[in-house]
From TrEMBL:
Residues 233-363 form the NlpC/P60 domain. The gene is tgdA. This is Transglycosylase TgdA. Gene3D superfamilies: 1.10.530.10, endopeptidase domain like (from Nostoc punctiforme) (3.90.1720.10). The chain crosses the membrane at residues 40-66. It comes from Streptomyces cuspidosporus.
């Protein structure tokens, strides 16, 4: 039996109409077994005696694959990656994300995730409300009746998501004649105001605004369904090497591998520590690590990809476990209380998908470096 990894609940966060972001995020962590534990579908782990040679071959193979594919880009993206957006909101994001040329479904998803973490009840100290974090004054002028029920409800995602798309498109109209990338200029207008974009003939030289444009465009990659294969990670071999050295250590719920923890880990603590060795700071909990990069398909997995498991395969917020893929349908993972870090198969009924971690993707996460 496997205990769930620590899970996150977003309490509030967001910004709308150039207000200073004021976020509070809380983590709902429950000690021990939670009654919904994932079944272990593999009766026995791969023999420990062959583990070191197996991983050594996989590490070498990772570098070879990366070298072979490094010349290809990720390509143009269309639509949403499977499971990237909670099922309740996926049709809305897909529809309204195509409202105008300046946005796309993945970009809209990235904004909504950055604003509220898909929490329709989020309210920030700056009084930004709902899943799209509109400030009431902005909502009064830009909110739309997306579901045609006769009212404009800031708390209703069926109104708020269409309103977010419409607001983006209205900003894009203001800056359509400004030189440069229309999407970048729209995002800069969202953060700093259209006047600043017009004044500087593009993204203004404000560090906050430039970071916002980079954050959203990077985060969008984790929501987009790639047309071509996802570029391999050059850091993956070292992450696998770290995880391989932890094989046989007992699982510890909430473990980060510190001396106080006796060098023990839980599932997301292990993946976080593995990528920390290559200079990538992942969030602490598994369902936040999901958005640290693009999502390769099952038949495109490479060693080093993070593989995830969820209670609801249509809702990434229900992710409860993560491991590091090592090839051959196997992962290294810290499975549950009473077990040790080991190899397990990934092809189980609760497998939701994978993430190819990137440094920019991890930096773009709203909870990066949070405990």
């Amino acid at each position: 039996m496997r205990a769930a990894c620590p899970a996150r609940m977003v309490s509030a966060g967001g910004r709308r109409n150039f207000a200073v972001r004021a976020e509070t995020r809380s983590y709902d962590v429950q000690m021990g077994e939670d009654g919904r534990v994932r079944k272990v579908w593999l009766g026995v782990s791969v023999a420990f005696g062959v583990s070191f040679s197996l991983v050594a071959l996989l590490v070498i193979g990772t570098y070879m694959v990366a070298a072979d594919l490094a010349g290809g880009g990720s390509g143009t993206t269309v639509g949403l990656a499977k499971g990237a957006v909670p099922a309740a909101y996926q049709p809305l994001v897909q529809k309204w994300g195509n409202l105008c040329p300046a946005i796309n479904p993945a970009l809209l998803a990235a904004q909504l995730y950055q604003e509220s973490g898909w929490n329709p009840k989020a309210q920030s100290p700056a009084n930004a409300k709902g899943i799209a974090q509109f400030i009431p004054a902005t909502w009064a002028s830009h909110g739309v009746d997306g579901d045609k029920d006769g009212d404009r409800d800031i708390w209703d995602p069926r109104d708020a998501i269409p309103s977010a798309a419409a607001y983006d498109c209205s900003l894009a109209k203001y800056v359509k004649d400004v030189p440069g990338d229309l999407t970048h200029n729209m995002l800069a207008s969202y953060n700093a105001g259209a006047y600043a974009v017009i004044k500087y003939s593009g993204v203004p030289p404000y560090r906050e605004t430039q970071n916002y444009v980079k954050t959203i465009t990077t985060l969008a990659k984790s929501f987009a369904a790639p047309v071509q294969k996802v570029r391999p990670s050059r850091q993956s071999a070292a992450a696998i090497y770290f995880a391989q050295k932890q094989l046989g250590k007992p699982y510890l719920w909430g473990g980060d591998g510190t001396p106080e923890d006796g060098g023990r880990f839980d599932c997301s603590g292990l993946t976080k520590a593995a990528y920390k060795t290559v200079g990538i700071d992942l969030p602490r909990v598994a369902n936040d690590q999901w958005n640290a990069g693009p999502h390769p398909k099952r038949d495109e997995l490479l060693p080093g990809d993070l593989v995830f498991f969820a209670y609801d395969l249509d809702d990434p917020r229900s992710i409860h476990h993560v491991g590091i893929y090592v090839g051959g349908g196997q992962m290294i993972n810290a499975p549950y209380t009473g077990a040790v870090i080991r190899f397990d198969k990934i092809d189980t009924p609760d497998y939701i998908g994978a993430t190819r971690v990137t440094k920019d993707g991890a930096k773009a996460l709203p909870t990066a470096n949070s405990a």
